[in-house]
Give the backbone structure.
Amino acid sequence: MTTAALKNPFTPEQMKELERWTKEYPYPIMGLLEALRSVQHWHLCVTPDDEAVVAGIFKTTRMRVHELVTFFPMFTQTPTGRRRLGVCHGLSCAMAGAKDVCKTLEKRLGVEEGETTKDGEFSWEELECIGACDYAPAIQVNDELQGKATAEKLDAVLE
Ligand code: FES
């Protein structure tokens, strides 16, 4: 993509928020991950245009930003659902039935892991251990731990 084709995808308020992250830590670049978390929250993904603008704000290369976006699973390059469900498939959760939870989500939402429903409401993905082994099989919705994935809890989440 050329610079001429770049379209700023952020509102003035969002630009202020991104710039604020350059001042939160001793070195501006230390705020980059937090800025990208904000972008993921606003756009439900981080697009090439997002990467380019963020790179400019943090005075770094787009490649460096892209490396972070593709390394950390919390960032996606295509939009997630507004409700992003995560199913832990670590050992404790696998033994407690995480596969059944995944099959239930696939059937009820009609999309495979990593896909988003047509209305943009839901997406689901498998996660590594999220540190809630006592609640196996553990699920989270957006960034919030929902604990044990009982049938009732899944119903409530999907309503
Ligand atoms: S294995 Fe699922 S939370 Fe630890």
In short: Residues 94 and 137 are 7 Å apart (CA to CA).
